Amino acid sequence: MTMDTQSMTSTTNKVLGYPLNAWYVAAWDHEVTRKPMARRIANRPLALYRTEDGRAVALADACWHRLAPLSMGKVMAGDEIQCPYHGIVYNSAGRCVSMPAQETINPSATVPSYPVVERYRYIWVWLGDPTLADPQLVPDMFQMDDPSWAGDGLTIPVNCNYQLVVDNLMDLTHEEFVHSSTIGQEELSESDFEVSHEGNTVTVARWMLNIDAPPFWLKNMRDKFPDFEGKVDRWQIIRFESPSTIRIDVGVAKAGTGAPEGDRSQGVNGYVMNTISPETDKTCHYFWAFMRNYRLDSQLITTQLRDGVSGVFKEDEDMLEAQQAAIDANPDYEFYNLNIDAGGMWVRRLIERQLAAEGRLVPTV
Hints:
It comes from Arthrobacter ulcerisalmonis. The chain is of the alpha+beta class.
């Protein structure tokens, strides 16, 4: 279903909270080891570790006894973790199995244990109602571990509300101004786009035909076609999956070779993979990767793309943190919406719907 901005009713312009009945990335798979690590997701401090058989575990990072961080403790044989303060031991379900200097274990000696799914090179956690934690609801990011795609990514700690990152990714016309030396060009704001939504997804599609390739994409074209010259057809197809995962199908192809109709053989195609986990109301963990379907065996290209995209995203980080500071300084100010905000407005509706279903629809200033 396609909608234009003229037919949309207004939604709240306040920065919203975050649903809890959802899967959020807590870490890259390689970050979680037998040594416990601490990470705060949706204002919940977590202790993450792996059991002896390699399974990832997420417990509340506070011992039942005196709230000492379990992430400062050590993993015992099997699946158990020991508090660093007084030696209380918990299993992976969060139940105490050993107390110092006494044989009787207090039955209330438990810490919350959160559902975990390891998929697409990430460790996902569910912080809401555990009976609703269906692994099939993990957002689709299949390019992350599909052998037809190659790439890598990083984590950016951003000092802003997670929704500001989502807004940034749903409207890429900012590239013309924030990323003018790499991926930005005038055609971004001059081109038409189409917004559609279905279920818990929103899609924004933009095509720019017969244009000059910006520096980033010209380099990628020449990585695959060393003698390339001329105009390109460029695309950006942004797909949001609530509450905070965005895959962006991006690329360029030699102009007039059929890319809009589905033939991308004369071009280069990438996916910018993004999933943003709120840390607090004003900070978040931004997990991203750039995946490509050409020159799969080249580690050099993988590293160059990761480092190049990282530099582009640093420009976003600076802008988003400045925006958060301005929001904090102007707590009564509400955003205004332009046509380019149509995708982001639908995203906010989906998040509002989830928060309302949880009884937690309270704007966060």
